[in-house]
Structure formats: structure tokens, C-alpha cells
Design goal:
Order of helices and strands: HEHEHHEHHHHHHEHEHHHHH
Strand content: 5-15%
Radius of gyration: 22 Å
Number of helices: 16
Distance between the termini: 45 Å
Bound molecules: adenosine-5'-triphosphate, magnesium ion
Length: about 375
């Protein structure tokens, strides 16, 4: 998947000037840019507003924590304003049954708070509770072509998965997902989006929507920022079957699991028969994954942990890793239990406050957008 497949080469909707090609950025350039951004963030965290979030399709797992949640908390603690969207409308992009949404949203909220998201400093809100955000989808949809959406790598990949599983074609909501995401990011004038490298093309749609909106309706002074991708220096965690850890594969270690469940989880982890432990991510991905997780929680390097393990065998490595994870997650899990037992009132308040904050911002943005578009009567 390459960012050079972004839709700059096609003719944009009529009336929209063609963007210069230089706006198409390679992954290497984005990485370089991210390093620059990190030092700017450290100096002036107040200049940045981050938008990121999750689909409430289940409780969060170890992959979420190491892949994104820790980074969000780090940014929050640096003083960056963080907006966390619980994207409930995105749950129904590819499934008919959203499950018990209130229960799932509650679990995600517990995971966020237990991991260190501070509702005083960060804004947690749900998609469906912010109507003005969703209305932005209408003008934004007019700024992209169907062909551009068809070429979006994520839309393409999801459509392929649907076809492979014999499901009916992509829903219209899935098809317009990248534009919905532009609304999520731009409603609050988010200017920083932490992403994995494979998500760069997605942000390109948001940047394109912002650019085209500005060109068409706000040429003198750009109204929307073109958000920057902050490539997370994070790991991709594998599940105990050797595939990427994910909610829907049933291979995940949930953050809310108990110590015993954690030990049992790692006992089942797939490894290889070589007794000598070495850190070779390409040749021995499962062992490397265990080493990365263990190293993360013990504050060492995977190579060092491998050297320490020597020829102790995969069984011993699993013991060491599950011990490290149990210890490392102990405070998070204790906080989570405490929050869960405090009853639903506190969580409801956190969400109500976040939703109110998001609504105030979205209402204002939509007002200004309607002014810029001449839709004031
Ligand atoms: P689903 O099975 O519904 O796709 P998931 O478990 O794969 O769920 P997502 O909601 O797709 O989780 O992921 C949200 C974000 O969490 C991703 O964009 C990624 O940044 C991060 N993430 C998810 N799984 C992992 C993982 N195994 N390792 C690292 N990061 C992950
Ligand atoms: Mg996923």
C-alpha cells in the first residue's frame, strides 16, 4: 500500500483546482516529518490538537495499548490537546449487528481511563452524539469523487474482505468512511493525527478535503488545517496464533483480563521449536513478538532479553513475558477494577462532559462552514 496512490492524478470535482503533485508525500518523508513534529511538540505542545479514536467493537487489547493508547497518553501528558472519538457509527460500516453498544462503549471508556486518559485534559466523545460533526459529511462529500473513494486502499481492502467472506458488497457508509474521518478530524480543527504507516493514505483524504474546502470557500485565509500524520513509534503486536492481534480474530489478550487469564493466554502462544532464543523479527516473528512485549514491560531491548534467555527455550520465555505483562498491567488493571466498581454514574459523566465539549466545537465549526459556503438565510 503506497501513498503515491493518492488521488492527485485524477480530475477533482468541477470547480476545484488541481492540487500540486508535491502534496503527495512518501512514507519516508512522513517519517522524517514526524521526527520534526516530535521536537516541535516537545517545545510547543499547546499548538497541537490530536484527533484519534476507536470503533467500539470490543474491549481494548494489548495491541491497542502498545500500538496507540500509550502514545495518546504520552501526547496528553506532554500537554497536547487530545480528542478521542468512540466511533459508534463506524461499527455499522461492515456489520448488521452492532452488539450491545452501551456495554462496549463502557468497556472502551474503562480501558482509556485505566490506561491514563485524563478526562479533565482529554475529550472523549461518541460519534452519534455530535450531530454537527456528522453534517460536515455533506459538504465534504461534494469535494471528492467516487473514483477517488474507490481507490482508497482501506475501502478497497475492506471490500475485498467482504467479498472473500461471501458478504454482500461494501455499505455506502464504508465507502464514505475516509470522508467521515475527515469530518472527525476537521470538526475540531485537529492538526495532528497519530497513525501507523499503513494508515497514511487515509489521512491524505482528510488533507485533500481540507485543501479543496479552503480553495473553494476560504481562499484568502485557509479555514481548515491540513493535518499532519504523526507516525507512531509503536509496535504491531501479534496475537497468540501468530497473526496480528485483533478483536475480531479472537486472538487478543484483553487489557481487562485477569492475571491467570494472562498466564494461560501466553501458554497458548504459538512459537517455534528452536530452544535458542534470538531476536529475528523476519525469520522468527512469534518469538520476536514475545521478546518485544517482554522488553516493553521490563524496560529493556528485545535483543538484550533474547541474550538473557539464551537456550532456555520458548516455554521459559513465555513465563518471563507473562510475568512481565502481569506486573506491567497491574496498576492499569487495579484502576480499571476500581472505576468499574464505582458504578456507571462516573463513566456517564465523563462521556456527557466530552460530548458537550465536542458539540460546542462542532456547532461552531458548522456555523462557520455554513457562513463560508453562503448558506446563511
Ligand atoms: P477489529 O478486529 O475490529 O479490526 P482491531 O483489534 O484490529 O479491531 P482496530 O479498531 O482495527 O482494532 O484498531 C484500532 C487501532 O489500534 C489501529 O489503528 C492500530 O493503531 C491499533 N492496533 C490495533 N491492533 C493492533 C496491534 N495488534 N498492534 C498494534 N497496534 C494495533
Ligand atoms: Mg483492525
Amino acid at each position: 500500500m503506497s501513498v503515491t496512490t493518492t488521488p492527485e492524478a485524477t480530475t477533482p470535482p468541477s470547480g476545484t483546482p488541481r492540487e500540486p503533485r508535491s502534496t503527495t508525500r512518501s512514507a519516508a518523508a512522513a517519517r522524517e516529518r514526524s521526527a520534526v513534529l516530535e521536537s516541535r511538540i516537545a517545545q510547543n505542545p499547546g499548538e497541537y490538537r490530536v484527533l484519534t479514536g476507536d470503533r467500539p467493537t470490543g474491549a481494548l487489547h494489548l495491541g491497542h495499548l502498545l500500538g496507540t493508547v500509550e502514545n495518546r497518553v504520552r501526547l496528553q501528558n506532554l500537554g497536547v490537546e487530545v480528542f478521542l472519538i468512540v466511533a459508534d457509527y463506524q461499527v455499522i460500516t461492515d456489520r448488521d449487528d452492532a452488539g450491545d453498544l452501551p456495554a462496549t462503549v463502557r468497556e472502551v471508556l474503562l480501558d482509556y481511563l485505566a490506561a491514563g486518559v485524563d478526562p479533565e485534559r482529554s475529550t472523549v466523545f461518541t460519534h452519534s452524539a455530535v450531530p454537527a460533526l456528522n453534517q460536515l459529511l455533506l459538504p465534504f462529500l461534494s469535494l471528492v469523487t467516487v473514483a477517488e473513494l474507490e481507490r482508497n486502499p482501506t475501502v478497497k481492502a475492506e471490500a475485498a474482505v467482504a467479498a472473500e467472506r461471501g458478504r454482500r458488497g461494501s455499505s455506502g457508509l464504508l465507502f464514505t468512511y475516509p470522508v467521515h474521518q475527515a469530518a472527525d478530524i476537521l470538526f475540531c480543527h485537529g492538526n495532528l493525527v497519530p497513525v501507523g504507516e499503513d494508515q497514511l493514505p487515509h489521512l491524505e483524504t482528510t488533507r485533500m478535503v481540507a485543501r479543496r474546502f479552503n480553495q473553494r470557500y476560504s481562499a484568502a485565509q485557509p479555514y481548515f488545517p491540513e493535518p499532519d500524520a504523526l507516525i507512531a513509534r509503536s509496535l504491531t503486536i501479534l496475537g497468540n496464533d501468530g497473526a496480528k492481534m485483533s478483536k475480531s480474530r479472537g486472538n487478543a489478550l484483553e487489557l481487562r483480563a485477569s492475571a491467570d487469564e494472562t498466564v494461560a493466554y501466553f501458554k497458548r502462544a504459538r512459537t517455534d521449536p528452536d530452544r535458542v532464543i534470538t531476536y529475528e523479527p523476519d525469520r522468527r516473528p512469534e518469538i520476536a513478538n514475545l521478546l518485544q512485549i517482554g522488553a516493553h514491560f521490563t524496560g529493556t531491548a528485545p535483543e538484550t532479553l533474547a541474550d538473557e534467555m539464551g537456550s532456555a527455550g520458548a516455554g521459559r520465555l513465555k513465563d518471563i513475558v507473562s510475568e512481565a505483562v502481569v506486573e506491567g498491567l497491574r496498576p492499569l488493571r487495579a484502576r480499571r477494577r476500581e472505576l468499574a466498581s464505582a458504578g456507571p454514574r462516573y463513566l456517564a459523566e465523563v462521556l456527557a462532559t466530552g460530548n458537550a465539549r465536542a458539540n460546542a466545537i462542532a456547532d461552531r465549526t458548522l456555523d462557520e462552514v455554513r457562513d463560508l459556503m453562503g448558506m446563511r438565510y
